[in-house]
Write a structure and sequence with these properties.
The protein is of the alpha+beta class and 186 residues long. 15% of the residues lie in helices and 43% in strands. The chain is elongated.
């Protein structure tokens, strides 16, 4: 093998990477939620690996309707030397959300490379209001439409079907739902 091949570099979106290096996008998304009286305080995290020493340095969260965008800022001062190296990063931002299901996107803003995203990275379901599994469709009544709504969600593995809040969608949720439904409500 000749010496040039050992030190070959590739330019990807303005960043010099070692030969064979990969662009690590989109980042990983994770969340934790603490319920208050009627809203959830969500800590949203993006993490990943960056291909050089000039990794992202902050995160910003914004929301429009049911879409949440986490924007990584890549503010590299002019004249910076960003040597190739794989660096892990993790940034968390908080937002207050009402009950619902939200689509989560990641984007990247930079002065030195073209922007990326918004790229879908996950969904987030918030359920902090007192919830009565028997009135699954939350129309104020307990009837057959709740059974239909529950089983539609349950078969689709919708996080809302996790009525026992154990993190899984299984037979235990069916039992909790029907116990509450048979009793006529909560």
């Amino acid at each position: 093998m000749n010496a040039r091949a050992l030190f070959a570099t590739v330019c990807v979106s303005g960043t010099i990477l070692p030969a064979g290096a990969q662009w690590y996008w989109p980042p990983r998304f994770s969340a934790s939620v603490r319920c208050g009286d009627v809203v959830g305080n969500a800590d949203l995290t993006l993490s990943g690996t960056w291909p050089d020493y000039c990794s992202p340095n902050s995160i910003r969260v914004s929301r429009v309707g049911d879409a949440i965008t986490l924007t990584l800022a890549h503010d590299v001062p002019a004249g910076s030397i960003c040597l190739p190296a794989l660096r892990d990063y993790s940034f968390t931002s908080s937002i207050v959300l009402t009950d619902g299901t939200y689509r989560v996107f990641a984007s990247l803003e930079s002065r030195s490379i073209p922007p990326l995203g918004p790229t879908p990275v996950g969904t987030l379901t918030i359920r902090c209001l007192p919830f009565c599994p028997a009135d699954f469709n939350e129309d104020g009544g307990v009837d057959g439409s709740d059974v239909e709504s529950f089983f539609t969600a349950w078969e689709a593995a919708d996080p809302l079907a996790d009525v026992n809040n154990d993190g899984g969608i299984d037979g235990a949720d069916v039992e909790v739902f029907f116990t509450s439904w048979s009793a006529g409500g909560c």
